[in-house]
C-alpha cells in the first residue's frame, strides 16, 4: 500500500514540477521584457519565441530531477538536502540548455531570461516542494499514508529507534509492536528485560507483544509494510528464518545490527566474489573517478591561485626578509595521507626556534614567538599561501582535514576516538572544520567530528561549497592565531 502511495505521490510531483517549470518560463519572460527591472531593448519580444525552447526542456528537467533523487522517498531527508539537489539539477539543466542554443546557433535568445528562469524556477519549485512536504506531514500526523512496522528482536537499539520514530512523527511510521523471545522476566537476563520495559513504555497499549516464531501469523493477519530486525547477538541464529518468513509474505525486511554503534553514518557494503563485506566507513574518495576528479580540481585551482596571489606572495617575501631574521619559508613535518609524513610549507611568522619547540609547542592567542608581521599574516591566512605548492606536489589537497605535527598525532591518537580516520584522505589547506570555526586553539573533538563528516560525505559540490565559505569566513578568523 505504501509503495502504491509513493507511486501516486511521484506522479503528482512530476505533474507539479512540469507545471512549475512552465510557469517559471512564463514569469521569467514577463520579468525580463515587461517589468523594466533589467536592461530593455527596443523591439518586439513575442512570448512564443522564448517560451517554446525552454518549454521543450521540461522532459530534460524531469529526467534530471530523477537523476538527482528528487523523486525518491524523502521521509527522512531534510528540506536543505532536497533544495541542494534541486540547485544542482537546475545548474546542469541551464548548462545543457545553453549548450543546445550554441549547437543550433540560436544566438538571439536572451541570456538575461535564462538567468531569471534559473532563479525563478529554483524558488518556485522549492516552494512547491515545501508545500507538498508540509501537506504530507499533516496527513501522516492524522494517521494516513503511514508505514506500519513491526520490530523482530529486542535490544537497546530497538528502544533508541522507537524513541526516534516517536520524536519524528512526520516520518509516518506506525509501530505495530515487538516480537521477542526474551521479554518474559523469568526467562530473560536483566538487560533484555530492562530493554523490553523501556520499549513497552514507549508504545501504545494496543501494541503487539509476541514470540519470534509467531512472525508468519502476524504478517498474514496484519497490514505490515516493513519489518525491522533488531536481534541481539545471541539470537543471530534466527536471522535466516526471519528473513525467509518476510520474503514469503512479501514484506520488506531491514536489519539494525547490534554493532551499528560502531558503524559510520554511511557504511559501505562490498561484494567480494559473492560475499558481502561491511566496511565500517564509506569513503567516497576511495573511488578512482572521485579521486581523479578531485586531483584535477586541485591542480587547476592551485595553479590559478598561485598566479592570482603572486603579487601578495612577492610582497610578503620582501616584508618578512626586511622585518625579521631567518628564512622566508618555514618548513615543518606534518602527517598526511596514509599516516605518511611530508614537509609542509608556510611563510615564516615566528622568530627562529629550536627544533624541540617546533615539534611540541602549541600556538596560542598572545604567543610571544610571533613577529609583528607574522601575527598579521597568520590572522589573514596569508602564511598558508605556499601550501598551494604542497597541493601541486600531491602532499595536500585544497580541501580536506588539516594536517598535524607527528608529536600531536601521537598524543591525540590515544586521547581522541577516531582521530586517525582523518589520515584516510589527503589533508587540505582549508576544510569543513575550519569554515565552521574549529581552527587554532579550539576543540580537537569538534574538529574531528567535522573532518569525519567531510570524509564520509565528500562530493565535488561539497568541496566547492567549502571553498566558497572559505572566501567569506575562512581566511580571517577570530581563532586564526
Automatic annotation (TrEMBL):
Main location: membrane
Membrane topology: Multi-pass membrane protein
Keyword Transmembrane helix in record: yes
First-level EC class: transferase
Protein's UniProt keywords contain Lyase: no
Domain Bacterial sugar transferase stretches: 294-474
Segments passing through the bilayer: 12-31, 51-68, 89-107, 113-132, 299-322
EC number: 2.7.8.31
Family indicated by similarity: Belongs to the bacterial sugar transferase family.
Record protein name field: Undecaprenyl-phosphate glucose phosphotransferase
Organism: Clostridium fermenticellae
Higher taxonomy: Bacteria, Bacillati, Bacillota, Clostridia, Eubacteriales
Amino acid at each position: 500500500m505504501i509503495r502504491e502511495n509513493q507511486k501516486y505521490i511521484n506522479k503528482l510531483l512530476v505533474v507539479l514540477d512540469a507545471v512549475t517549470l512552465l510557469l517559471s518560463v512564463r514569469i521569467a519572460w514577463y520579468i525580463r521584457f515587461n517589468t523594466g527591472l533589467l536592461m530593455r531593448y527596443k523591439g518586439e519580444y513575442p512570448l512564443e519565441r522564448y517560451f517554446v525552447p525552454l518549454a521543450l526542456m521540461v522532459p530534460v528537467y524531469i529526467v534530471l530531477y530523477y537523476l538527482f533523487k528528487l523523486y525518491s522517498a524523502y521521509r527522512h531527508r531534510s528540506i536543505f538536502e532536497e533544495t541542494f539537489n534541486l540547485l544542482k539539477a537546475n545548474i546542469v539543466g541551464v548548462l545543457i540548455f545553453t549548450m543546445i542554443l550554441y549547437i543550433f546557433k540560436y544566438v538571439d535568445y536572451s541570456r538575461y531570461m535564462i538567468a531569471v528562469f534559473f532563479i525563478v524556477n529554483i524558488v518556485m519549485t522549492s516552494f512547491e516542494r515545501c508545500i507538498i512536504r508540509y501537506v504530507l506531514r499533516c496527513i501522516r500526523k492524522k494517521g494516513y499514508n503511514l508505514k506500519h512496522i513491526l520490530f523482530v528482536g529486542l535490544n537497546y537499539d530497538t528502544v533508541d529507534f522507537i524513541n526516534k520514530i516517536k520524536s519524528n512523527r512526520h516520518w509516518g511510521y506506525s509501530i505495530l509492536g515487538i516480537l521477542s523471545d526474551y521479554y518474559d522476566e523469568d526467562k530473560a537476563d536483566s538487560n533484555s528485560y530492562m530493554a523490553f520495559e523501556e520499549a513497552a513504555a514507549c508504545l501504545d497499549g494496543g501494541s503487539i507483544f509476541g514470540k519470534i516464531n509467531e512472525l508468519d501469523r502476524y504478517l498474514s493477519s496484519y497490514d505490515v509494510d516493513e519489518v525491522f530486525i533488531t536481534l541481539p547477538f545471541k539470537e543471530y541464529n534466527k536471522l535466516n528464518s526471519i528473513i525467509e518468513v518476510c520474503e514469503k509474505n512479501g514484506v520488506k525486511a531491514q536489519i539494525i545490527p547490534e554493532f551499528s554503534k560502531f558503524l559510520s553514518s554511511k557504511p559501505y557494503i562490498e561484494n567480494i566474489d559473492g560475499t558481502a563485506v561491511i566496511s565500517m566507513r564509506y569513503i567516497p574518495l576511495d573511488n578512482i573517478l572521485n579521486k581523479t576528479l578531485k586531483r584535477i580540481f586541485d591542480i587547476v585551482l592551485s595553479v590559478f591561485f598561485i598566479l592570482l596571489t603572486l603579487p601578495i606572495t612577492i610582497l610578503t617575501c620582501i616584508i618578512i626578509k626586511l622585518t625579521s631574521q631567518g628564512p622566508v619559508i618555514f618548513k615543518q613535518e606534518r602527517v598526511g595521507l596514509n599516516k605518511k609524513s611530508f614537509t609542509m610549507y608556510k611563510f615564516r611568522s615566528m622568530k627562529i626556534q629550536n627544533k624541540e619547540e617546533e615539534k611540541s609547542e602549541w600556538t596560542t592567542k598572545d604567543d610571544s614567538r610571533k613577529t609583528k608581521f607574522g601575527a598579521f599574516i597568520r590572522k589573514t591566512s596569508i602564511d598558508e599561501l605556499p601550501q598551494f605548492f604542497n597541493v601541486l606536489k600531491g602532499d595536500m589537497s585544497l580541501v580536506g582535514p588539516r594536517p598535524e605535527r607527528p608529536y600531536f598525532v601521537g598524543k591525540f591518537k590515544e586521547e581522541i576516538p577516531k582521530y586517525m580516520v582523518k589520515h584516510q584522505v589527503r589533508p587540505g589547506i582549508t576544510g569543513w572544520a575550519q569554515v565552521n570555526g574549529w581552527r587554532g586553539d579550539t576543540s580537537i573533538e569538534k574538529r574531528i567530528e567535522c573532518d569525519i563528516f567531510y570524509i564520509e560525505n565528500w562530493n565535488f559540490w561539497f568541496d566547492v561549497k567549502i571553498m566558497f565559505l572559505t572566501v567569506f569566513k575562512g581566511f580571517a578568523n577570530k581563532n586564526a592565531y
